[in-house]
Design a protein that fits this description.
The complex is a heterodimer. Chain A is mostly helical. Helix content of chain A is about 70%, strand content about 5%. Chain A contains seven helices and two strands, in the order ββααααααα. A two-stranded antiparallel sheet of chain A has the order 1-2. In chain A, helix 2 (about 60-80) crosses helix 3 (about 85-100). The chains are: A mainly alpha, B mainly alpha.
């Protein structure tokens, strides 16, 4: 029995000779992120079908609740002047949640690839830096690294770089742990059921031992934590940190 | 099938994810936030309009009430005025009537008095004449002689004066 926990499958390799970036790889992550985008957009379109001002449907009430929640979350944490960040934070949260939860269907979630979280973290880091420069000017931004004393400059730079790395790794680590534990559990349960049903004599035992009966049910309990709780929690933490860092950065 | 490392950065995945994130931002903005915010705005505008309408109606009601109260007050004042006028007129009229009645009474009294005086004088004169004649007759018969006209007159006057005093 061999257990292989690996990264995203490469579905297609388009050879290019671009240095550093390498060949274009159409990985499972990219395909799944398209699926996630399609799901979110489809859900948005479905939720906002035939909107009314009065006598709204339950569907519209849900859509309005989502929008109001996003508005309150962003405006409440960042202030009125960051109203244009609402779609960004909402998109980040929706993509993260749907990506995390898509693993429930047995598909590989895009967030189980460090590249995804790293990309988000870099975007957030860019926004944070832009806000800092906007708040205190280019000179002020670089001068900020030498505060309170110039000796601390390397540490300041390190802590600045730690922001996106910690954000990306926190999210990725939580999802990856779910993937690893799930794979281990499925492997263990398959092995256990193979051994258990292998005890049956003859052909019946040979056939039944190939079917991992024990894999039904038990992993669902773990998935409550690793997919549902962790999935929502990490998406929420990522968005909360994004909102907090950006609003802090704009205060200079 | 080729697989990527479990932990690692794939440059194209990285780039694609950034692009996907921005596309997702646009899509979520276009398909969720824009329509819902429009509806929320519309509802807010409607609620505002209704509140404004209600306020206008309230203002109107207050104006109408003020007008009504003013009218009531004016009517009350007018009624009071009319009442006061009526009382004044009544007083004046009653005084006038009293005065007239007094005057009439006085006039009647005066006339009655003058009538009485006249009657008295007339009666006295008649009596004087009659008594004079009677006395003359009696005297002629009693003393069978003529008294002088002058003496006669004096005698009668004396008598009448006595009678008048006695009456």
């Amino acid at each position: 029995m061999e257990l292989d926990i690996s990264g995203a499958k490469i579905l297609l390799r388009i050879p290019t000779n671009i240095p550093i970036l390498g060949d274009i790889l159409l990985t499972e992550t990219i395909v799944m992120s398209w699926v996630v985008m399609a799901l979110i957009t489809g859900l948005c379109i479905w939720l906002t079908r035939d909107l009314k001002v009065e006598g709204i449907t339950k569907r519209q009430a849900v859509a309005e609740m989502i929008v109001e929640t996003a508005n309150h979350f962003v405006v409440g944490n960042m202030g009125e002047k960051f109203r244009h960040f609402i779609p960004f934070v909402a998109a980040l949260f929706a993509t993260s949640v749907v990506s995390n939860l898509i693993s429930l269907t047995g598909l590989r979630s895009p967030t189980a690839d460090l590249s995804t979280e790293a990309a988000w973290a870099v975007v957030v880091f860019t926004i944070i830096t832009a806000q800092k420069i906007k708040a205190s000017g280019v000179g002020g931004y670089f001068k900020g690294f030498t505060q309170p004393i110039p000796v601390l400059t390397p540490f300041n730079i390190l802590s600045e770089l730690a922001t996106p790395i910690s954000m990306a790794c926190r999210h990725f680590g939580n999802i990856l742990s779910g993937v690893v534990i799930n794979a281990l559990l499925y492997g263990a349960l398959a092995a256990a059921s193979a051994k258990l049903f292998g005890l049956l004599p003859g052909v019946v035992g040979d056939v039944l031992s190939q079917i991992p009966f024990l894999s039904v049910g038990i992993p669902a309990i773990l998935s409550v934590y690793f997919d549902w709780f962790s999935g929502f929690m990490q998406a929420f933490i990522f968005c909360m940190l994004t909102v907090m860092y950006i609003s802090n950065a704009s205060e200079g | 099938m080729e697989v990527q490392g479990l932990v690692g950065l794939a440059p194209w995945t990285f780039i694609a994810t950034i692009a996907n994130l921005f596309i997702q931002v646009y899509l979520i903005k276009r398909f969720l936030f824009k329509p819902i915010n429009e509806v929320l705005e519309k509802r807010k505008a409607k609620a505002d309009a209704e509140i404004k309408d209600a306020e206008t109606a309230k203002q109107e009601a207050i104006a109408v009430k003020a007008e009504y109260e003013q009218n009531m007050q004016e009517a009350k004042a007018k009624a009071n005025e009319i009442l006061a006028n009526a009382q004044k007129t009544a007083t004046l009229q009653s005084e006038e009537i009293l005065r007239e009645a007094n005057a009439q009474a006085m006039a009647i009294k005066g006339k009655a008095e003058s009538d009485i005086a006249q009657e008295k004088r007339k009666a006295v004169n008649e009596l004087k004449t009659e008594i004079g004649e009677m006395a003359m007759e009696i005297a002629e018969r009693v003393i069978e002689r003529e008294i002088s006209e002058e003496d006669h007159k004096k005698l009668i006057d004396e008598y009448i004066a006595n009678v008048g005093d006695a009456s």
